[in-house]
Amino acid sequence: MQRIKKVCVYCASSNKIESKYFEATETVARALVKNNTTVVYGGGANGLMGALADTVLEEKGRIIGIMPHFMKEVEFHHKDVNEFIFTADMHERKKQFMVGVDALITLPGGCGTFEELMEAITLKRLGIFTKPILILNLDGYYDDLLRMLDKAIEEGFLSEKHRPIWTVFTDPAKVIEAIMGSTPWSSDAINFAQV
């Protein structure tokens, strides 16, 4: 089985969400640490980002925060994460999220998480990013987004060939299995990027 050495996790910074999302995040974090996988994330101390970092640190795993300088200045960064990359802006942050990772994992989140996911899907469609993109659809959180992606295929905005760009999973404990079960992707995808 191929080793999953490093993954990026996209997730929420909100503390005003149900406990099930925190529990799922902690489960994902434990599974990644158990697999000896380095975690890259947005560097925050609150919400699911904070839960992710806290759990990785408690389990003695390795976590790297990536955050623009302006966020550090308003004390958004997690003080216990000692590996940080501070970027000039949000665009550079998103680029850094993808450097050297074996997969992207999308947990429930808000507009920032949506934007990161959609940019990753776009880059994979173009063959610029080729690693697995995972979506944790916990209790149907992403049902509407997945329906929108289905509609884009049905209406001809995406091709059926693009459906394997993302992999949906529902059990946070099976994150490694979901990564390993993803359809391989190639930089040749640029050849069928246009519908």
Give an overview of the whole structure.
The termini are far apart. The relative contact order is 0.16. The longest helix has 16 residues, at 19-34. The protein has one domain (6-192): Rossmann fold (3-Layer(aba) Sandwich), CATH 3.40.50. The chain contains seven helices and seven strands, in the order βαβαβαβαβαβαβα. It has helices at residues 19-34, 47-58, 69-73, 90-97, 111-125, 143-154, 175-180, and strands spanning 6-10, 38-41, 63-68, 84-87, 103-106, 133-136, 166-169. The chain has 195 residues and is α/β, with parallel strands linked by helices. The chain is 38% helix and 16% strand. The mean pLDDT is 96.
Which ranges are low-confidence, i.e. pLDDT below 50, for 5 or more consecutive residues?
A: none
* Biggest sheet details: 7 strands, parallel
Strand content: 15-25%
Side by side, the strands of the main sheet go 4-3-2-1-5-6-7
The level-1 CATH class: Alpha Beta
Helix count equals 7
CA-to-CA gap between the ends? 34 Å
Q: Secondary-structure element order, as H and E?
A: EHEHEHEHEHEHEH
Structural class: alpha/beta
Radius of gyration: 16 Å
Number of strands: 7
| CATH architecture label name | 3-Layer(aba) Sandwich
GO cellular component, one term: cytosol
Catalytic activity: AMP + H2O = D-ribose 5-phosphate + adenine
InterPro entries: LOG, LOG_fam
Protein name: Cytokinin riboside 5'-monophosphate phosphoribohydrolase
